Amino acid sequence: MHYKMYDEMMEQPRSLKDTMEMEKSHMKEISEKFQEFDKIYLVGCGSSLSTCFSSKDAMNIVSNRDLEVFTGYEFFYHKKLREKNAGVILTSQSGETADTLAALRRAQDEGMYTVSIINESKSTMMQESDDVVLTRCGRETAILGTKTYMTQLMCLYQTLFTLEDSSEAKNVLKDLEKIPNITQDLLKNSEEDNKTLAQQYADYDIFYCMGSGPNYGLSYKLAMTMFMEGALKHACPLYSGEFRHGLIERVEKNIPVIFLDADYPGDEFTRKSIEFSRKIGAKNIIYKMQDYTDINPLLAPFVLVVPLEWFIYYLAHYNNEDPGRTRHIGKVRY
């Protein structure tokens, strides 16, 4: 058993290092440009949207900067744009995502400055954006995105946190430099436990995924792309604080709920939900950042995604599915 996703997971540390080496000074220039703007939009779809969610929620904890997240077509069709002093950061693995490309063109029609974070140097977004951050991942074919997710998230953090001059932001950037080596260790040390866990849950078809702060973005990716695209399992993402507004009525004995915990202030609700689910016999699956490394908790999505990748990889395998294969998605496959 060996799927293409395995190779792409193993390429994550090198992709992170190469991207930071090649693009760090460029991202600093972009940050200086974005200092001018009163408003910053973050736009993406699928895994790329999840990186926008995590970055915005992480920034909200250290900054009062005006950031807003949109999916591509929501930005294109439903956002009334009046700002004359705004910048847009668009995220796409292929640089050809139709809805993100539509958002790019609308932003430019409105006179907004556009920066795209992409992985393909010959893509349309590369040609049409005002500026580009190019992630150095090589070709990625697995549908759920591993190395492109990690490098894209890193570029958003590097660009956005550089906008802030606080000690909190500087601490995040300092620990961000550790992520390639931490990823290398996690790939080596978290496989077996999650392989065993995946075997235990291979016959389950519905999963709930929950996190607070920046971990909501990861729970979104986990549900929308990792479970539903990669493992072909039904899944639903949720902010921890929303547990009692709906999920508390649906969670029941033997239903698996994945909790992401980085000890954020909002994880008070994560732990209350864990305790409630334990009492009624739900299948709690808990991923705590502190079990893996001791760095700034705002970087939790970088840390927790690796063991989750292993879990999804083997969950697909035990259901005789290739975790990188598509069935219906019309995503650009280069």
Automatic annotation (TrEMBL):
InterPro entries associated with the record: GlmS/AgaS_SIS, GlmS/FrlB_SIS, SIS_dom, SIS_dom_sf
Domain SIS stretches: 30-169
Keywords: Aminotransferase, Repeat, Transferase
GO molecular function: carbohydrate derivative binding; glutamine-fructose-6-phosphate transaminase (isomerizing) activity
Pfam families: SIS
Any single biological process term in GO: fructose 6-phosphate metabolic process
Matches recorded under PANTHER family: FRUCTOSELYSINE 6-PHOSPHATE DEGLYCASE, GLUCOSAMINE--FRUCTOSE-6-PHOSPHATE AMINOTRANSFERASE, ISOMERIZING
UniProt protein name: Glucosamine--fructose-6-phosphate aminotransferase
Lineage: Archaea, Methanobacteriati, Methanobacteriota, Methanomada group, Methanobacteria
